[in-house]
Give the backbone structure.
Amino acid sequence: MQREYKPDTTIPFWRDERILKILGQIIFALSVLFVGMLIYQNMKAGLAKQGISLSYSFLKGVSGFDIAETSFAYDRNSTYWQAFLIGLLNTLSVSVVGILFATILGVILGVARLSTNFIINRLASFYLELIRNLSLLVFLIFWYLGVFLKLPRVKDAILWPGDIILTNRGVGIPWGIPTASFPTFRLILLGGLILTVVVFFALRAYSQRTGRAPLTLLWSLLTFVVVALVGWFILPEKPLTLDLAFVKGLNLSGGKILTPEFMALTSGLVLYTAAFIGEVVRAGIQSVSKGQVEASRALGLNGFQTLRLIVFPQALRVIIPPLTSQYLNLVKNSSLAISVAYPDVFYVANTIQNQTGRAVEMISLVMLTYLLISLLTSALMNWYNQRIKLVER
Amino acid sequence: MRKTYTILSLLVLFALALAACGTAAPAPAPSGETVTVKETVVVEVTSSAPVVVAPTGYGVTLKTVMERGNLICGVNSQVPGFGFVDANGNFAGIDVDYCRALAAAIFGDPTKVEFRPVTAAERFTALQSGEIDILSRNTTWSLVRDTELGGNFVHTTFYDGQGMMVPKDSGIKTLQDLEGGTICVQTGTTTELNLADVMASLNVTYTPAVFEDADSTFAAYSEGRCDAVTTDKSGLVSRRSVLADPAAHEILDVTMSKEPLGPMVRHGDDQWFDIAQWTVFTLFSGEEFGITSANVDDIRANATAPEVRRMLGLEGDLGLKLGLTNDWAYNIIKLVGNYEEVYNRNLGPDTPTYIPRGYNSLYTDGGLLYSPPFR
């Protein structure tokens, strides 16, 4: 016997799974919101009881303290906000320099680790195993107290070829100073950059049309170098003059002075992160199956072509995601700057927090800053990852 | 699906529990109504779990300390003579002895203190959050700290001034000689601000090298990272005593600021403030009346001067007014000593951290130590 279908009997909403699911989501979202509000209110009430109100307007106040490394004009009459920006720029410069050198060193280490040369291979493994198993904080303090502060005093400075001066007050390197023709040179460089992009896309179009694989990146970069060199030599006045560092009184002067704090922090971060990147690179290369290499050789590609056209593009797909986390680690680890007295954003925020007593505000600001930097780095790397990943048809 | 709902209902329950705690804590009472304040106090103590900030209110701190059975005192652990861990692993210094005096006043036992080392940077947060009951860590009294940092300064226990130390062979004699030099300084201090102020007014350009704590500041200085190091003169004297070659460094004959150092308590508990305040005055008065830990028993047996008798609890009930026992001042002097004893023990001529008394003498000797009357 078949039951009669009755269209007017609907399922009550408390038994309707579709509604229940949505309801569950709403209740969950509400309870999260509620707990968040509760915590916030609790904090506000607690602070109010102490006569402390939550406000960021103090950032407009005069800071009253000096900072050692400033990338724009700053003195004790500047505001807390400017002090914070100085810290932020210092964090960014350490991160950029750190990521650049860590990547170069990391790739070298990763390739060396796979080298068939016994000594290179063993040395690379030894380095990776040693560094990866150290504590970064200890490593940084070693570089600061054990290396850069142990350099001789200014009057006994060590001179290295290339006009590099090593002292415990900092490392002085030659540096270019812009002259009157620098703005023109900058325009030439911009033109070169545009030309480079044009060459890059032209070569890629050629490659797609003909199926040949020209050295796209190399030729594009070469274009840029040629334009820069031509610009340098046709200008009547050189756009940059070389300024050498020298000893002046108590300190170093001229050129570019890299402070022991900056040197210790970047060396520590670079050498540490490079060890991890080395392992990532090795894993990436090893992930490409041997058959791929054998097939490419069978097709008549030579060793370099095999590496460039077969191994690297496939290895990159494996390398990029873990490499992103290494970059993020480097940026976040740069907050250990406080242990070597380098004024990064966390350090400056700490000082501000101390002088104003605005702990909650400053910590929230610092957290937001790191979050933004990390999300930005991560977004860039994800975009690159999308570009290179296997296109499935 | 069932699992999801279990988790969900647990979450809701948790939220409700939190809400209950939240609603139990009443809004801060308007000032001036003592009765409401007292009500607040009772509820606060029972529902303190999720509250970030330590409960405050008249009498709360003493009650908490009594119930806990010891005093938690935020101290320095890096400045010999003020707050330092000695060779035997014991805390020593005048700031440390002040904590012992306070414990003696409360418990009649100077050992009932837990010393908690705090850095310059974390000290105010530690006090605000109730991690420590009192901060006794060579802290300079200033207006911002008195207001915005949610604390009150008790009477100054050491009058100091900021100084500058340089290596003797550097040839630096004045602050102007530091033109273009690098100066080591500790972060989160008034010192850092004074340095910027003084150098700006003298028009001397310099580079600061700013460190997290006293140890790293002086480690960098002794490695030659800086041409000079600056902090309170007392701090310079005491840190010089632990440098590799103390004789190779000299403290310049300049005073860059006023640095009145004293203990600090949280806003909102006036009784606790009074106890802390009068513990300082007891130390001063002990010296003024010539009462020492050695003769306090004799004096108590034979005292005739009314103020001495009141202080030692033989007349009146001064101790009870503070919420303590009547022999509180006797205990301080008997168990810890008067100001002179405390000073000589930590900063006297027989110590490596000798600092002449200067402003830190009684007003009768031309100094600034002056106690209000015990009556």
